[in-house]
Amino acid sequence: MSTSKLAPVIVITGTPGTGKTTHAELLAQESPIPLRHINVGDMVKEKGFYESFDDEWQSYTVDEDKLLDELEPLASEGGIILDWHTCDVFPERWADLVVVLRCNHTKLWDRLEKRDYPLKKIQENNEAEIMEVVIEEARSSYAPEIVVELQSEGTEDLESNVARIVQWIEAWKKDHAVSDS
Questions:
Q1: Maximum CA extent, the chain
Q2: How far apart are CA 131 and CA 105, in angstroms?
């Protein structure tokens, strides 16, 4: 990504139920430089960036071209947190940091049940977590030095993960000579 950005682009990804949105919201509040949280799944629904809805899986078939066209200018400016269950759709040049949240599959199952996900969807997401689908996506799509895997089991993890990302932002700021204006 361009070095003229005043703030980084951070991708927070993980299997549904790992705490992406909670992490992104807290990070947006705690960040030493302004970051805008973009819940990509909500954007897809709100702006109609999908081709169809799959009733069986209770999910949208995303129109990636429309989505990426919308996000491109935002990513070019920097200062965003992209929160989505997948990351390989985002061009490598966008991301300064890719955070993959992980969760014990038993805990994940409980979280997805509380969301009233259909059993088939809970099973699929649980299997994806066990098989490390999202972390493998991240590793195959981005430079290894920008991919970070963090556990997301509870409040303690949330707070320590956000503190760690804030430290990374401070280092990014220093490396990019961004002032506290």
A1: 50
A2: 10
pLDDT at 4: 66
CA distance 77 to 6: 8
Q: Please tell me the pTM assigned to this model.
A: 0.94
Task: Name the residue among 65, 60, 53 with its Cα closest to residue 85.
Answer: 60
| SS3 category, 2 | coil
Residue matched to tokens 């000579």:
177
Name residue, tokens 């195959």: 140
Query: Which segments of the chain have a pLDDT < 50?
Result: 1-2
User: What's the residue count for the chain?
Assistant: 181
Q: 54 in helix, strand or coil? A: strand
Rounded distance between C-alpha atoms, residue 55 and residue 52, angstroms: 10
